[in-house]
């Protein structure tokens, strides 16, 4: 399992994790630390009202939360600026490249809009992928039978991974479609340990309101579904 994960380059955290000497460099470790800290603080702030968040606070500007958020935003700005400086010649195009490219004769996103897009991609893509992979490896480590079954399926479909042969054992899309047990492991892990534990809020926009389970919900009301609860209902 570890051999396969270490050979992946689909997420930024994978090469960082398996290049241990680089972690000693302060810019790298500082970026990783601020990324994780900022993510957790923003999750908490997202549950509060806008008035609370905008309230002036002398202590907030020097707090750990504010420092982490500022550092994380700096990482996003650096990513966005780098993409603009390199232009749109990168192949293949990734998710961070698309907002830079003008489409249908329209200009690309403004710089700060691009920064916000990078922030969303870092939060919604990298951290959720990392936390999901971390939890599934943890659960597999506790369940030897499931670990053996998964290893057998991977070896049968992909062939054994070889450290001396770069790229060996890596899955293509067609091979991934033939891994039902692997998909079941991912689905069960997401059900038990969702990477986003809080409830995604939604606002009722119908001017007449809506009806949920026999209850009339007024327009402008924020509603949500408790992920932890609904995924454990029989």
Automatic annotation (TrEMBL):
GO terms for biological process: secondary metabolite biosynthetic process. One of its GO terms (molecular function) is heme binding. Pfam families: p450. InterPro entries: Cyt_P450, Cyt_P450_E_grp-I, Cyt_P450_sf, Cytochrome_P450_monoxygenase. It comes from the Eukaryota. PANTHER family: CYTOCHROME P450, CYTOCHROME P450 12A4, MITOCHONDRIAL-RELATED. Belongs to the cytochrome P450 family. This is Cytochrome P450.
């Amino acid at each position: 399992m570890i051999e396969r994960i270490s050979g992946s380059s689909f997420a930024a955290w994978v090469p960082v994790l398996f290049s241990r000497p680089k972690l000693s460099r302060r810019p790298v470790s500082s970026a990783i630390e601020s990324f994780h800290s900022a993510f957790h603080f923003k999750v908490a702030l997202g549950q509060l009202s806008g008035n609370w968040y905008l309230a002036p606070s002398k202590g907030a500007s020097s707090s750990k939360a504010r420092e982490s958020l500022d550092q994380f935003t700096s990482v996003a700005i650096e990513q966005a600026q780098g993409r603009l400086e390199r232009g749109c010649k990168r192949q293949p195009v990734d998710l961070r490249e698309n907002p830079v490219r003008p489409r249908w004769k329209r200009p690309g996103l403004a710089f700060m809009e691009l920064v916000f897009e990078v922030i969303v991609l870092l939060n919604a893509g990298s951290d959720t992928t990392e936390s999901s992979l971390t939890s599934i490896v943890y659960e597999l480590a506790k369940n030897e039978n499931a670990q053996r079954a998964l290893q057998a399926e991977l070896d049968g479909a992909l062939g054994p991974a070889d450290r001396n042969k770069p790229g060996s054992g890596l899955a293509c899309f067609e091979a991934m479609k033939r891994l039902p047990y692997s998909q079941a492991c991912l689905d069960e892990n997401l059900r038990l340990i969702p990477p986003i534990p809080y409830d995604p809020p939604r606002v009722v926009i119908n001017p007449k309101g809506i009806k949920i389970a026999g209850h009339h919900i007024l327009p402008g009301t924020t509603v949500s579904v408790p992920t932890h609860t609904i995924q454990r209902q029989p």
